[in-house]
Structures are given as structure tokens and as C-alpha cells.
């Protein structure tokens, strides 16, 4: 039997795949208010934030639904390897903000670096050195993205986790 892969992936704030939105506090799946925000471009297609508010415990959590589109997306300028996100980034940075930054990063937009460091990354693209870029999330919390010189691993981390 041939099954085609799903075009949608729903992720909890901790980046765990989920079948449908649920309350992370009490596991409620029925009594929820679900609000979907405008999709934005990300590395694998487009992603929408889904704000899930539980009517039982009134906790709100933000899920992210990725609509995979491998044809419509820009090609990364360099291989990212395995993408690893630290605990600190998962806890502090909204998932969609990390996804948006990864798209920028893959296109050679180095975020909030000074011109000298941006030029060093441009040179690293040519020479095969390590790449390090810095971004701010919606709350102005800074995080870094680093790709090792052999392009095997890309890590998203907080500066204090370095
Ligand atoms: Zn709840």
C-alpha cells in the first residue's frame, strides 16, 4: 500500500508533533477555542500559529502548523545538516520565530550581526568555515544560529548556552 506523506505538520510549543490541538495543561481536546493566525514563509513551506485556549483551565498555548511546500520554497544557500534546538531556545523563543530566522539564515541573511561579522559569514560560505548569525525574536530576546564548518549540524541556542 502506498501512502502519500502528509502536507501538514502540527507542532506543540515544545516541537512535538500532534494530531490535533490540545490543552498542554489538562490534555483537554474538546473544550478549546482555536484561533489560526496568518501563515508566514518558513524553511519548509508556510507556517501558521494556532492559539489554543482551554475553556476548562483557561491556559493558552501556541501550536504551529507547517504546510509543507517543497516546490514553492527558496533553496538554502548552504547545507544546514541536522537542525538542533537547545532547551533554552525551546523554552524562551516562540517556535515560529525560530522557523522564520532559519529561513533568513538559509538565505544568507545574518540577522543583527555587525557588518564585519556578516562579511565573515559571507567568506565562510565560500571558504567552508563555521557560520554564526544572531536574531531577535518578537520580544527582542536574542538567539544564535550556528552551522559547523562541515555543514553537518545547525544549532539554535541562546547566547548563555554557548
Ligand atoms: Zn486545560
Overview of this structure, please?
The chain folds into 2 domains: 61 residues, no CATH class; 80 residues, no CATH class. The protein is built from 3 helices and 10 strands, in the order βββββββαααβββ. The longest helix has 13 residues. It is of the alpha+beta class and 162 residues long. The strands form 2 sheets. Strands 1, 2, 3, 4, 5 and 6 form a 6-stranded antiparallel β-sheet that branches. Strands 7-10-9-8 form a 4-stranded mixed β-sheet. The protein is 19% helix and 33% strand. A hairpin with a 5-residue loop joins strand 8 and strand 9. It binds zinc ion (ZN). The site of zinc ion has 8 residues, from loops. Zinc ion (ZN) binds next to loops.
Give a brief description:
This protein is of the alpha+beta class and 162 residues long.
Fraction of residues in β-strands: 25-35%
Summed up, the helix count is 3
General form: elongated
User: What small-molecule ligands were found?
Assistant: zinc ion
Structural class: alpha+beta
Q: Unreliable runs, pLDDT <50, ≥5 residues?
A: none
- How confident overall, as mean pLDDT? 94
Give the CA-CA distance, first to last residue.
46 Å
Rg, nearest Å? 17 Å
Annotation, overall tally of beta strands? 10
For the biggest sheet, the summary is: 6 strands, antiparallel
Structural domain count: 2
| Topology as a string of helices (H) and strands (E) | EEEEEEEHHHEEE
Helix content: 10-25%
Amino acid at each position: 500500500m502506498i501512502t502519500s506523506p502528509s502536507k501538514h505538520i502540527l507542532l506543540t510549543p515544545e516541537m512535538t508533533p500532534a494530531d490535533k490541538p490540545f490543552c498542554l495543561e489538562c490534555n483537554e481536546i474538546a473544550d478549546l477555542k482555536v484561533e489560526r493566525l496568518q501563515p508566514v514563509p518558513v524553511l519548509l513551506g508556510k507556517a501558521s500559529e494556532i492559539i489554543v485556549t482551554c475553556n476548562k483551565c483557561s491556559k493558552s498555548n501556541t501550536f504551529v502548523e507547517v504546510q509543507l511546500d517543497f516546490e514553492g520554497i527558496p533553496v538554502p544557500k548552504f547545507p544546514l545538516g541536522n537542525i538542533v534546538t537547545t532547551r533554552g531556545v525551546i523554552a524562551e523563543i516562540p517556535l515560529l520565530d525560530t522557523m522564520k530566522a532559519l529561513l533568513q539564515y538559509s538565505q544568507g541573511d545574518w540577522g543583527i550581526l555587525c557588518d564585519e561579522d556578516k562579511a565573515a559569514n559571507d567568506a565562510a560560505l565560500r571558504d567552508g568555515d563555521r557560520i554564526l548569525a544572531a536574531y531577535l525574536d518578537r520580544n527582542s530576546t536574542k538567539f544564535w544560529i550556528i552551522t559547523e564548518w562541515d555543514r553537518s549540524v545547525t544549532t539554535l541556542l541562546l547566547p548563555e548556552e554557548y
